[in-house]
Amino acid sequence: MSRLIIVVGDQGCGKSRIARALANEFGLPVVDDWNGRSPLPVAAVVTTNVLDVEPWLGVLMVRVS
Q: Are the C-beta atoms of 57 and 42 separated by less than 8 Å?
């Protein structure tokens, strides 16, 4: 099954820590600091501070604050 989780938040808020925990739980790789323009993998935990991620991605989005 494909699983893509995007963790969004400001710099220094703990996105990478949460991403590593999620990746460990679901057995997924981590893509740290995605720029919002490059293609996304089919299955991964992605961190970004890009807040205008397209709503049609069909992914679970976790806002970290």
A: no
